[in-house]
Amino acid sequence: MELRHLRYVIALSEELHFGRAARRLNMTQPPLSQQIRSLEEELGVKLFSRTKRQVVLTEAGIRFVEEARQVLAQVQHAAKVASRAHTGEIGYLTVGTVTAEKTVLVDTLRAFAKMYPDVHVELRSMSTVAQIEAVREGRLQVGFVILPIEEGVLAVETVAREPLVIALPESHRLASRRRIPLKALSGEGSILFPRALSPGYYDQIISVCRNAGFSLRIIHEMDNIYTALALVEAGLGISLFPASIQDLRRRGVVFRELEAPFPKMECAVVYRREAQSPVLHSFLNVVRQVSARPRSLKPAAMAAARSATI
């Protein structure tokens, strides 16, 4: 039995006339009659009762047509699913990130969900080192990491660059200044992410401070932005953040620019070069589109900049 036999039976059941059914199927009547007889012999039942004047479905034929319609509908559905999977419209994607507050990540997830609503995305919070290992082992399809990293196996694409700002308690002695010299941070208690989170960038920050003539005094470590902001608000230290953090607007916290040149925070996506997943390719295309958009300060950040005084 083939799918075409099911179509023959359904057409004949709806026309109840061999000639009309044959024309509908773009074939002649004799081959259609032969195919129906062969199918009935294979099944061992009569699907149609024939007389010179009419063709009528038997009880077995009625049940067969019901099942045949379901089978063809399922086949069409399977074909559609295969086509959508091939174009990356449906499927499953595991995404890693150091911090879920990165603008490029949030914008990508928003755009991707709108374009591919039937793709299930699982977001995992992981350090840069852990993401690289997970992508290599296939436990993660793509990761958003903080540069620099030493990686010669995975594909690495830079997707965002942001300057850093200093977060201070609003009562801090440096809060009245619009821009703060790097050396002014000497002796200040700092709140910083653990080195294990992004070793390359952590080392860059430490190195820049040493080149400026002092060692950063780290008194607290945190693994997320909100904890760090809470510590700053409580007056327990100062902290470095990407400039976009100003959009969050935290009471009791002010943000100021650094006067000396400081390395920007660079975010990149990493993935296996040989990956063949259409869903991954669709996601990467969205990432590239989002990262190519021009970015400007949002109203909150602009307001914060205008309110800063020298």
Which key terms come to mind for this protein?
Arc Repressor Mutant, subunit A; rod-shaped; 10 helices; alpha/beta; disordered C terminus; D-Maltodextrin-Binding Protein, domain 2; 310 residues; five-stranded mixed β-sheet; 43% helix
> What's the architecture of the largest domain, going by CATH?
3-Layer(aba) Sandwich
Average pLDDT, to the nearest integer? 87
Q: Shape from CA axes?
A: rod-shaped
Based on secondary structure, the structural category is: alpha/beta
Number of helices: 10
Strand arrangement within the widest β-sheet reads 8-12-7-11-9-10
Task: Please give the number of β-strands.
Answer: 13
Secondary-structure element series:
HHHEEHEHEHEEEEEHEHEEEHH
Number of domains: 3
Structural Rg: 32 Å
Portion of residues in beta strands equals 15-25%
Helix content: 40-55%
Low-confidence stretches: 297-310
What is the highest CATH level, the class of the largest domain? Alpha Beta
What fold name goes in the CATH topology slot of the largest domain? D-Maltodextrin-Binding Protein, domain 2
The major β-sheet equals:
6 strands, mixed
